Amino acid sequence: MKTTLPITVGAVLIASFTVFAASAPRSATFEARHELKIVVPEGAKKVRAWFAMPQDEPNQQVSGFKVESPFPTRITTDSEGNKAVYLEVTAPTKKEFSIVETFSVTRREQISGVNAKNAKAISAADREKFAAALGPNAHVIIDDRIKKLAAEIVGTEKNPVVAARKLYDWTLDNIEYWVKDPANKKASPVGSTDYCLTTKTGNCTDFHSLWASLARASGIPTRIIYGSFFKAELDGQDADQSYHCWPEFYAPGIGWVPHDVAVADLYTGGYTVNDANAKLVRLTTGDGKVSADKAKIDYFFGNLDERRVTWSRGRDLTLSPKQDAGPVNALAKAYVEVDGKPGAEKEVWTRKLTFKEKK
After folding, report:
1. Are residues 341 and 293 in the same domain?
2. Residue 17, in any domain of the structure
3. Angle between helices 144-154 and 160-174 (to 10 degrees)
4. What is the pTM of this model?
5. Could you give the count of Cα atoms lying within 13 Å of 82 in the half-sphere of its Cβ?
6. Which residue of 42, 79, 243, 320 has the fewest CB atoms within a 10 Å radius of its CB?
7. What would the pLDDT profile of 83-112 be if each residue is shown by its tens digit?
8. For the CA atoms of 276, 278, 280, 286, what is the dihedral angle to 10 degrees?
9. Strand locations in 244-329, DSSP E?
């Protein structure tokens, strides 16, 4: 059920968007296989790997979690509270090996019922409590250009929900998901505010890095969550699900509110679906059903579909045991070090997530 509410300050109408009632959320259960394959470089003396695993949280219940590995593993917790499967091998004799996680996950649709009338302004105590969610990261920058742009978009608005929606709408109007035109638009390899703002395109991490920068510059605490879709089109197939990310922002009086402006961008219309982009567009969502749809745009501000799994929260992570190299940009799939240096994805390691939905 949904209702469209006007948002006013004094007697001035400043925004209108749909609020979805938090009743009867959908749910889905998936049997998943998550594999990390490591190819050991010649002469390597030590290999360490941190493999993302499904987290226990209110909208996601994990059962039957098992790990298969030719070497001992253990579960560790990083600087942001994310659990991961850790492996360390000294003088490895195998040229390649795999760590395999299997598990069942039931995911519920997240309907926040976000309503600006219930939100309060961010207080000094909130800013102190959530200082880490207000500061920059290596690729989520807050410079003079970001501060100026955020001020232009948000103005003097103090209601964090209204301000967040202004940033959401600005992003939809000014940034385009790369899959719309893969011949001419590309994503950055790291999830970069600067790249996204400069090129006006990117993938989910580029979109949400820019949005997080603007939100934090506006005084709204923001975190980025990394996970994956269980893509309906790939159910039961031997095909990796890749990763996806989305932000959540803090609004006093409501709590942490999710959104997914990157996926919402696919529902804005104004682009042609053709042989070059059709499959990419479909596989950038959970259910693969994409067309111009204002209701979907409203839905993804404050709500998330159930075809997801959460791997981690946060950027610039310190893992456990601590990695030898610098902060880890994000744990979207895995992080591998060889003799103290990061191992490159597709050269040293690959990840494959496959699944079957339980009906």
Report:
1. no
2. no
3. 110
4. 0.93
5. 31
6. 42
7. 999 999 999 999 999 999 999 999 999 998
8. 180
9. 244-251, 255-258, 303-304, 308-313
